[in-house]
Amino acid sequence: MPRLLWPAALAALLVLGGGASTVAQPAPAASAAPAFPLEFMRQAAWRRAEPGPSVRAIRSLLAQDPAAAALKDRVEPLLLEAEALAGRGQGPEAQRRLVEARAILRGQAWTPAQAFASSLDLRAGAAIVDTARPLPLRISQAFPQAPAPGLRLRLSLQAPGEAPAPLADLPAPRLRGQALTLPVALAGAGEGRRTLLAEVVDGGTVLATATSTLDLVADLGGREAAVRRRLATVTAGEAARASVLYPFELAGFVQSGRREPERLPFAARLARSEAVLAGLERGQDIVVRGTGDQARHYQFAEAGEIMPYRLYVPTDWDGREALPMAVVLHGGGGDENEMFNLDDGKLGKLAQRYRYIVVAPFGYRPVGAYGSPIRLPSVYGNPTREGRDVGGPERARMLKLSEQDVLNVLELTAREYGADRSRVFLTGHSMGGGGTWYLAHQHRQLWAGAAASAGPFFIDGYDFERLRGLPLLIAQGDADPPSLEPDRQLAADLLKRGIGVTYLETAGVNHGQTFGASLPSIFEFFERQKLKADPRKPLPFR
After folding, report:
1. Residue 129 and residue 125: Cα distance in Å, rounded?
2. What is the mean pLDDT of residues 504-528?
3. Of 259-268, 367-376, 399-408, where does the model show the most confidence?
4. Rounded to whole angstroms, what are the CA distances from 491 to 77, 488, 494?
5. CA dist 263 to 28, 193, 214, 268, 338, Å?
6. Between the N and C ends of the chain, which has fewer C-beta atoms within 10 Å?
């Protein structure tokens, strides 16, 4: 059973914080998605950040959510106080007003006990945890607040589909303005993905809950050493070697803060590493020129790290045919798996049906934007200042490497599989839609067509003439207010310039559903480009 290791002096403590051609089509079956943009706005409003962004996020919610707007008379004075306090350098007191505003919006009573519970922050010292070592938990407060009598802190660890396993039930800590770091022993907790739960409890009422996602690995250091010894005894190509070593490099980067934790359970990365290494030990490279759905990796020299990408090659590929290829870009905060996982694997199924190689790069970082110098969320016509100089040298480097990652993955895949370079297409959703517009502009010569789904748009310095002659499709859902009207206007403006575009709008789908709903039409659009000599010719449905 995992347990908390309490230093004797900390025995009473604890944690946490709360003419475009237009295609109309009926709403198809699509994966469930939260209401957008309200759900997005709520998440932004609840997220603790610096006072300025927090005030703006809460005001956006007040403006768009009728339920929140009904509470504006109580919330707005707190926002004004937060702004004034932040302006005088009183950040913690500004945070207190913001937390109280969030409590009102959530229907919570603002009591000393609730204030204490809401003041706490919990930070696990690592997301990929070697269970051979204690996990450090850092506890701090956003603003000073003493615990009310009787408050307790409960910690537990939960495996998927199982009840939480208790770690500790302790009196709430009196932090006195000092952060505390507490070691948690996880030996015996097993391996795999777990959720660390911390709850502040008043009697039988949970006042605040915080969660951290952890990937538990037994003796990660010893496992890495053993893998490196085995790898040294076999002949491995660059692609196979990168796949074997990726999980261990990733763990180091996550633990050092250079990379964010991945959505994909770490155990899946380890399993792929072991499968590739076991194949090499049998004298078989299962990576190069493989078919079907594949997790792939390469050494990204410009970044100095191994980078993942996802690839689908039709299972009936004979090793000689030059297949068309589609490069697919994920949305903000996603990864190379996001688009393949939509709607029960629809992307891979369509790739098999139409016989396309489909590759999804990571884009270096979850919000790398593929080089497009936007500030999310941004849409066509947005007057917000954008550019590579916004965010400083670190962001400029991220943008450059994100763009280069796409180009590297395209070249590696096209060369390895002998793809038809005259039929390489580009598509993406949300941030990936913005990346589609950007890369279509920057590297016009690479693409046989581009399909942007609900994407942000960087307009400063954009030369529309570079798109002339490039087949373009814009995909939208009519339940996606942030980008719906801007994309309609973009299609109209392209037409005014004499630049052809197909505009596809699907009824009843929101931002999270648009790409999945549009995918069959996107593949049809790509297929139609080889039939330009006779556009009336029926498509070769398979």
Report:
1. 9
2. 94
3. 399-408
4. 42, 5, 5
5. 27, 10, 11, 11, 9
6. C
The stretch 74-94 carries a mean pLDDT of: 97
**Percent of the chain topping pLDDT 70:** 88
Look at strands 128-130 and 205-217 and give their pairing: parallel
Distance CA 382, CA 27 (A): 28
Question: Hey, what's the torsion of the CAs at 247, 252, 255, 261, to 10 degrees?
Answer: -30
Mean pLDDT across 209-213: 90
Task: Return d(Cα 432, Cα 369) in angstroms, integer.
Answer: 7
**DSSP characters for 280-308?**
HHTT--SSTT--EEEEEEEEETTTTEEEE
Amino acid in the structure at residue 272: R
Q: Amino acid letter at 470?
A: L
Please give the helix or strand (H or E) that residue 81 lies within, else none. helix 72-87
Strand order, beta sheet including 180-185? 3-4, 180-185, 135-141, 120-124
248: left (phi over 0), alpha (psi -120 to 50) or beta: alpha
Residue written as tokens 């409003």?
45
Helices (H), 310-354: 338-341, 346-354
Mean pLDDT, range 345-357, rounded to an integer? 98
Q: What is the dihedral of CA 60, 63, 69, 71, to 10 degrees?
A: 40
- The residue among 180, 195, 282, 156 whose CA lies nearest residue 230 is 282
Q: In the prediction, which pLDDT does 135 show?
A: 87
CB 451 within 8 A of CB 526: yes
Sheet with strand 165-171: strands edge to edge: 128-130, 205-217, 192-202, 151-158, 165-171
**CB-based contact 474:500 (threshold 8 Å):** no
Tokens found for residue 262:
């991945």
Q: Which two tokens stand for residue 355?
A: 């016989």
Q: Which residues pair with 169 in a beta bridge?
A: 154
Pair 509, 479: CB distance under 8 Å = yes
Local confidence band at 385 (pLDDT 50, 70, 90 cut-offs): low
Upstream peptide bond of 173 is cis (omega within 30 degrees of 0): no
Indicate the length of the chain as a whole number.
542
Q: Quickly list H helices, 192-343.
A: 220-231, 238-256, 266-281, 338-341
Higher per-residue confidence, 510 vs 402: 402
Decide: residue 12, CB within 10 A, 0-12 exposed, 13-18 middle, 19+ buried: exposed
Where helices occur in 342-430 by DSSP H, the ranges are 346-354, 392-417
